[in-house]
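Weekly puzzle thread! Below is a chain. First person to post its structure in C-alpha cell form gets bragging rights.
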Amino acid sequence: MTDADSTNEARRSRDCVAKLRPGQYKRIPRNRDRPAIGFYIACPACGFITAILAEEHEVIDGVIEGGDEMIVMLEDFVCGRCRKAYSIQNGSYVHR
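Winning reply:
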C-alpha cells in the first residue's frame, strides 16, 4: 500500500463517519469478527458526532434478526455540543 492509498483509505473512513445523520451510529471496527472497541454516535438532537469507547460506557452490541446492528448502552453518554445525556436501549435513544 502506498502513502496515497493509505491517505485515500483514511479519507474514505473519515467521510463515512462525517456523513452520519442525527441518531445514527457506526461500530468501531466495522468488522464483526472482532469485538467492538467503541462507536461513533451522532447526537439525535444536534447531530454532533461523539466517539464512545465500549469499555468506558458498558456497551453491548449485537446483531438482531434481519442482520441489523443493535447496541445497548448501560451508561449514559453526554453530547459534546448540546450537553444532552442519552443512553441506548434496544437500539433506541433514551433522553435522560
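Puzzle host: Confirmed. Bonus trivia for everyone else. The longest helix spans residues 3-18.
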